[in-house]
Amino acid sequence: MGITTAQLRRYGKPLVFGVMLIPAVWLTYNWWQAFQYQPHDLGFNPQETSNRFTGDWAMRILLISLALTPLSRIFRSPKPILFRRMVGLFAFFYASLHITSYVWLDMAFDWPELWADVTKRIYITVGMTAFVLLIPLAITSTKGWVKRIGARQWQKLHKVVYLVGLLVIVHFIMMRKGFQYEPLIYGGILALLLLLRVPAVRRFASLP
Amino acid sequence: MLIKSKEKWMETENSVTDEAQYLNRRTFIKSASLAGAALGAGMVGSSLGFAAKERTLLPLDYAKTSFNPGEDLTPENAITNYNNYYEFGTSKDDPAANAWRLEPKPWSVKVDGLVEKPGTYAFEDLVDMKSLEERIYRLRCVEAWSMVIPWIGIPLSSVLKKIGPKNDAKYVAFETLADRKQMPGIRRPVLDWPYVEGLTIAEAMNDLAFIAVGLYGKEIPNQNGAPLRLVVPWKYGFKSIKSIVRIRLKKRKPATSWNKSAPREYGFYSNVNPEVDHPRWSQARERRIGDFGRRKTLMFNGYGEQVAHLYKDLDLKANY
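ok -> structure tokens follow
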């Protein structure tokens, strides 16, 4: 690749940052419009739209963050790793928006009802567990925390993200009605990304 | 908190297109397609495709109704653009985008099973277009949203009287068209096609059970179940089967589509019941389309007076 690491740090990171913000900007703008009684693109059931939109993006960005390590192995270049923390934090950011959308816009802070949902509806329990597991990963994402915990321990801790990925896919499959392909496609992508981490698979594909 | 968000489709009265101008647009399309024909055969094809998307919904003659909950009607645009009709795709906007492929005229309905007069009925022979009436009903979807819809049609009982159920008939089963050519969603195995729904004879003979052929004063749009659909307002929306091609009277309970797909989630009765939750969400409240917050869901969707007696010997928790 002709792009240097320095250039990626200087221009690549702000660019990726901006691009990753686009869905959030779109959503905020449209809710702002809705609250002002102005035309918006959230459709006839804005709460449903925003729950799905934030969930979709949290899941997509989580999968992108999980793709960066395999990509760096395939290209035998550490450059994709430069973006791993930022992309991972964006996954957490969209997951937070997803929770906000559900708790505030959809359920209007009806805590008893919310608690009933989280404990009684397995797919919400699964989704909420995935979110809660992401919190310590987001908190310990800084360099300071890597030092404090120790690189080896830190890496072990952050393997929790594989479990989060699985929970997210289960949550997605469970919320759809009937037999639908879309959750299975996302599930397939996650399976591939996890497989590429298995030592035997890496040896077979002669990846580092 | 009730925030009424003003949508793009919420127009003021004075911005309504003048009727003469509105009707004139057909002439414009016609002349445009004639011009197209002059330009070449390819253009004709595309203008025909355009014409198909623009199915004209004729106004209907109907009697005004006494069935009116007195609540604000859900805007027509919401009713015709926010649909669950999986034969046209699983997104809410898929039916409005894809249902132009459906050809509702001519239409026939196969009537069989335990009836005096089985056979294939033309739409016009089954639905007496001279005795149409309007019914304003609440519609409560199993997904916890709701609408208020001005249907036009005839009581289901009038159709049943025409075909004459035999004494041993206990259930009515309905089937939706399942045609790959007209319905792109059929290619995906979301459900076991064709879509099947059913009622007990007592439910079907109830005054509220309705066959709708129109909506908001006009013929019913394809995405809402043209040319004829069931409306059972005290049950979750998926019971109100669309684009009916077969009516079968049976001794045994029919195997209905959602019940087969997820028996724990969708029962045969599927009466609106705020006390019996869907395993994945609460049914205690619902969002009326257009409202910001949720409102309480009513037992039998507020039609208990008319239908509760049908279930007085039934455990509604076990028979959800």
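The interface with chain B takes residues 34-35, 37-40, 43-48, 108, 113, 116-117, 120-124, 174-181 of chain A (CB under 8 Å).
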